Amino acid sequence: MTETTPSTPKAPTVVRTPEELARLRASMGRVALVPTMGALHQGHRSLMSAARGHADTVVVSIFVNPLQFGPNEDYDRYPRTLDADLRVCAEEGVDVVFAPGVEVMYPGEQIVTVDAGKMGRVLEGEFRPGFFEGVLTVVAKLFNLVRPDVAVFGQKDAQQVAVVRRMVRDLCLPVTVVAAPTVRDGDGLATSSRNVYLSAAERDSALALSRALLAGADASSGGPEAILAAARKVLDAAAGAVPPVLVDYLALVDPATFTDVRPGHRGSAVLAVAAWVGETRLIDNVPLTL
Ligand code: AMP
């Protein structure tokens, strides 16, 4: 009788410095980069598997970027789970993990940054001033350090995808941006590293976000006003739940510019929502065709 032992997936090469990365780069062939802040979940796994279809070498970066957190945000308590993350990367067949320290990414004062312009001042940018500047600055650094052919981002952060695409276009960066669909748990909640903050009751309340988006999507034949009204109705009810859902914004926007769609708009749109449940801020969105 032959005994079968479960095969251990091959561990990725862990790289900590730009110098090690540069040494490896020549032998990587076509590279797909998946930028993350770690605390990896099913959403990240789906990006890794999408990346595999675009490249010889899949690189995952794991870096909790201080520049994109506001002074009162959760930088200090953001989950950091590198050992578990490396196991996830191994299971997903990731080749290289780039996990630099803060001193590697920000060795001194960051004087020059990348500004997302007017796209960085609406919706997420309005409620999180400096957020997209922090995101674009670290993404630009990662692009220059890893030199990927393709970079994979999640549709879950739809405005992030839009501003990164715009940066690539406006600054002529030699990278193809790929967006992968949002992964949800069975109850509809979009998977997020921040979901670990939610108590059971908060998680129940948080389901209003995906329910509102679904209600909006169901009303799409009625046009922008009907979509927003249907979603708003669900969120208004959730404002009275215990614990309550407190909405930062609900908006129906053009997926490329993130400006509000006009009445009578036809074509693609994104219905996006951000809300607080307890101490946790959640975002979600759904792409629509009107
Ligand atoms: P984060 O680690 O939260 O910065 O996310 C890293 C990447 O994973 C970003 O491109 C996110 O949009 C993506 N991502 C996060 N959650 C999901 C999800 N539920 N589905 C798909 N992509 C996701």
UniProtKB/TrEMBL annotation:
The record's listing under InterPro entries reads:
Cyt_trans-like (IPR004821), Pantoate_ligase (IPR003721), Pantoate_ligase_C (IPR042176), Rossmann-like_a/b/a_fold (IPR014729)
| Pathway(s) this gene product operates in, as recorded in its UniProt entry | Cofactor biosynthesis; (R)-pantothenate biosynthesis; (R)-pantothenate from (R)-pantoate and beta-alanine: step 1/1
Q: Which keywords appear in this protein's UniProt record, sorted alphabetically?
A: ATP-binding, Cytoplasm, Ligase, Nucleotide-binding, Pantothenate biosynthesis
Per its record, how is this protein called by name?
Pantothenate synthetase
Reaction(s) catalysed by this chain's protein: (R)-pantoate + beta-alanine + ATP = (R)-pantothenate + AMP + diphosphate + H(+)
Subcellular localization: Cytoplasm
User: To which species is this protein native?
Assistant: Marinactinospora thermotolerans DSM 45154
Q: Where does beta-alanine bind?
A: Q68
